[in-house]
Automatic annotation (TrEMBL):
Organism encoding this protein: Flagellimonas meridianipacifica
Lineage summary: Bacteria, Pseudomonadati, Bacteroidota, Flavobacteriia, Flavobacteriales
Superkingdom of the source species: Bacteria
Tagged with keyword Oxidoreductase: yes
Pfam family, one: Glyoxalase
Record key words, sorted: Dioxygenase, Lyase, Oxidoreductase
Domain VOC span(s) in chain numbering: 171-292
Molecular functions per Gene Ontology: dioxygenase activity; lyase activity
Protein name: Catechol 2,3-dioxygenase-like lactoylglutathione lyase family enzyme
InterPro entries hit by this protein: Glyas_Bleomycin-R_OHBP_Dase, Glyas_Fos-R_dOase_dom, VOC_core
Keyword Oxidoreductase: yes
Amino acid sequence: MKKYGLLCIFCMALSIHGQENYLSFFDGLIGKTWKAEGNWGDGSKFSQEITFEYVLDGTLVIAKSKGFTDKEQTKFGNRNHGIRKYNPETKAIEFWEFDVFGGLTKGTVTTENRNIVYSYRYGESIVTDMWEYIDENTYNFKVGNYVDGYWKQVYLSTQFIAEPIQKEPFEFDHQSLVVTQLMKTGDFYRDVFGFEEIPHPERKPGFRWFKMYGNSQLHLIKKDVVEFKKDKSIHLCLATEDLESFIEKLMGKQITFYDWPGNLNSVTHRADGVKQIYIQDPEGYWIEINDAQH
């Protein structure tokens, strides 16, 4: 039995008609982290964590899992990303599961009393994963060949326990910079980084606000005199998936960049593999751009 193939999921096919939400079964699963550990039939380890969230006004459920990300089962991290969607043509909830190894598993889901059963093809066989309901925070979990209400073979038997998702006590909101050239500096952040300008809530003069990513913002505040040494150690840091393309954009705009020691048009390669550069805005504030993954 494949040890790395399928993210264990919660979903079910509902025979509900009309305008009801076919994915409402996930209501009790949202906001929890489902954890399980055990051993496959050959003795190898099984360890998994799963969370669920609604997207697109509740028409899709996204499942994210952590598990072993190497065949030696020594590295644990983000492993699968899945989609759950009701198909009106088949009148079933279907799933697509993409894993870190480049694989795709897909199948359909049904229910058996309060148990959640889903089937998918593995090679020439049809494999079943069953979540056997114990209570709202506990499911027994089995993987194997399940035919006509009986297990012909069981590859894995363990239990998923739910834990509330712990939110971080703080989230990044905004960074403010005092500037003397409000228009020029604001245009720099808009044109170089593509930040969207948003209105000041009181629409006061002397401010330019920008949306950076998600709910994070950059606030520029105009002052006639700014007495402050712009040291590179004090900087805003932004990450991009394509640092090379961003460097080409800087060169096209004739904006110089530096590595950490200060070498012109050079890139720093950190010990952890992250590449980084530094530029200055029109006020002299330093900005780091790197390719760290988040």
